[in-house]
Specification:
Blueprint lengths: L1 E8 L3 H13 L5 E5 L33 E4 L3 E5 L4 E4 L4 E9 L3 E3 L10 E2 L3 H13 L2 E5 L3 H12 L3 E5 L12 H13 L3 E3 L4 E7 L2 E6 L4 E4 L1 E4 L3 E3 L2 H5 L8 E2 L11 E3 L4 E5 L4 E3 L4 H15 L11 E6 L2 E7 L6 E8 L3 E8 L2 E8 L5 H9 L6 H4 L8
Parallel strand pairs: 1-2, 1-6, 2-3, 6-18, 8-15, 9-10, 9-15, 10-11, 17-19
Antiparallel strand pairs: 4-5, 5-6, 7-16, 12-13, 13-14, 19-20, 21-22, 22-25, 23-24, 24-25
Helix pairs in contact: 1-6
Length: 393
């Protein structure tokens, strides 16, 4: 049984950031990191962005091994909060003074055979899909949201024929206003992507080296590979079994402490109080993982700071892209302030006259202004927001 002053369960960006936060306040305390992944921590967004645009693989690694002892390819299966011990799936046990749960999330799966679909999430998935893309020509992407739209663009940019199948009316239709989302349908079609909205996959059958995909609406599509990007579920089973408070994620206070003393949690799996929104939520994006992870590490090592960061998220869709903050749902009242229709502009999301979210469409370096606007009480009308955030030329 090995003992660590700080034990981290998880191997993503939040876990790596925590090691950096710990080292800022404690340069010598032992850190152990247990990860289900075979690979050390890396910049996950590159899996659907930079690596497909030519970013070298060696640039994505976080060098976590310089700060912590990595225990890779292991799953933590039991947590005893009384004994302060963790057991992994190979029967090895570890004890700790402080524990961090950075367990992330797992892809939502479809009932069509685990070997038939690539559920795009980790570096091994990237390697698998990249190898297939080097050898095959046609891919079906299931899902038109954040990951699905990025993967479809990435595969198309490396010369592959892509068919997208998704439930919504339009690409990113759960986030973007209807007119912009429908514009993306046309934009992707112009890029050569076959876009099939308002449909779902009913079956996936492998026949030799190829797949036959049937949709609910009766389409039959022959393809070389099937990729799914339909969201994740937070990995809360370990915390739940140990008796920690769980409610749409592992519940933490403003210092990122869980309901059990000396146990912290961070990242995609965490239900935290979003200061700018004034309510609890989960955020499954890089900026939140990095900022929250670092603060959790600092607080484990003696810090005493509250998490009040307003995280951003961003996406690359061919030559288009955006940065966003806050709550962005197409069901909310939206105000679009276009500098150039569908090419550059700002989309504001309102609730009760307050700005609850902002999408900065295809222009950059205005996130701090968007964050500041979310803190203003308003109330705002649509005409008040026109020109509020300027498009930088």
């Amino acid at each position: 049984m090995k003992h660590y002053k700080y034990l981290i369960i998880g191997g993503g960006l939040a876990a790596d950031a925590a090691t950096r936060g710990i080292r800022e306040l404690d340069p010598d305390g032992s850190i152990g990191l247990i990860s289900m992944e075979k690979d050390p921590p890396y910049m996950r967004p590159n899996l659907s962005k930079g690596l497909w645009k030519g970013r070298p693989v060696e640039k994505i690694w976080r060098k976590t091994e310089e700060r912590a002892e990595l225990i890779l390819g292991r799953k933590a299966t039991a947590l005893d909060v009384r004994k302060k011990s963790v057991e992994d799936d190979k029967g090895d046990k570890y004890t700790y003074d402080k524990l961090l749960l950075a367990t992330g999330g797992s892809p939502i799966h479809l009932p069509f055979g685990e070997q038939n679909i690539i559920y795009y999430r980790d570096f091994q998935d990237y390697q698998n899909l990249r190898k297939m893309a080097d050898e095959k020509d046609h891919f079906i992407v299931i899902g038109g949201g954040f990951i699905g739209s990025e993967i479809a663009a990435a595969l198309t940019m490396v010369g592959k024929k892509v068919t997208m199948v998704f439930l919504e009316d339009a690409i990113n239709g759960l986030v973007l206003p209807s007119d912009l989302a429908h514009h993306l349908n046309d934009f992707y079609r112009e890029k050569g992507v076959e876009v099939i909205p308002n449909d779902s996959v009913a079956s996936v059958d492998k026949e030799g080296e190829h797949f036959t995909v049937r949709t609910k609406n009766g389409r039959v599509i022959e393809t070389d590979g099937v990729v799914a990007g339909i969201g994740i579920r937070p990995n809360v089973e370990l915390a739940e079994a140990a008796g920690l408070k769980v409610d749409n994620g592992i519940v933490v206070n403003e210092k990122l402490e869980t309901s059990v003393e000396d146990i912290y949690a961070t990242g995609d799996s965490v239900n935290f109080f979003h200061m700018a929104l004034g309510k609890r939520t989960r955020v499954e994006h890089e900026d939140n993982a990095v900022k929250m992870g670092k603060l959790a590490g600092q607080n484990m090592a003696g810090g005493n700071e509250a998490y009040n960061h307003t995280p951003l998220f961003y996406s690359d869709l061919f030559e288009l892209g955006y940065e966003a903050v806050g709550e962005t749902s197409s069901k909310m009242e939206t105000v679009s302030d276009w500098h150039e229709q569908f090419q550059k502009g700002t989309i504001y999301y309102l609730d009760g006259g307050r700005v609850r979210g902002v999408v900065l469409w295809n222009f950059w370096k205005q996130v701090d202004n968007a964050r500041a606007l979310m803190l203003e009480r308003g109330p705002f009308k649509a005409e008040d927001l026109v020109g509020m955030i300027k498009v930088n030329e």
